[in-house]
Hints:
- The protein is mainly α.
- It has one domain (2-154).
- It is 85% helix and 0% strand.
- It contains five helices and no strands.
- It has helices at 2-33, 36-49, 53-72, 79-108, 118-154.
- Helix 1 (2-33) runs antiparallel to helix 2 (36-49), helix 2 (36-49) packs across helix 4 and helix 4 packs antiparallel against helix 5.
- The longest helix has 37 residues, at 118-154.
- The two termini are 16 Å apart.
Amino acid sequence: MTGLALGVAAVSAAAMGGVFFAFSTFVMRALGWLPPAPGMAAMQQINRAAPTPWFMVPLFGTAVVGIGAAVGAAGEPGATFAVAGAVVYLAGLVLTIAYHVPRNEALDRLDAASSASEPAWSTFLRTWTAANHLRTLTCLAAAAAWVVALSERAGR
Length: 156
């Protein structure tokens, strides 16, 4: 079961990393190219649409499965990488909860049609995206660690 959990965690973390990678590499840039009001309004709608089971289950489920895999791998080949994957993924999840969610909520309270909101939108684009790069890396690093853990288990 540990091998299966490692595989599921790796694939799910890679998928989440892909979602965040898309935002880091082109979604946020495209929103920034729009005039401020429609760009901000589009991001507000994205943030409202995101919390669905199709997003939340992989986001949080990966942490649960990854922790389970790390516990299950204790004392076995690949245990260090299984634990590293769980720790790194959890760091990205903490970043999401502590950094991205509050900023998304603050953005949602702004009036996208008001020119007074433009400075906040400009700051949001820059800072949210920079932190999202880190979130992307945590997901991809966790996926890589779990793949290495699987590889070490296969080599025993």
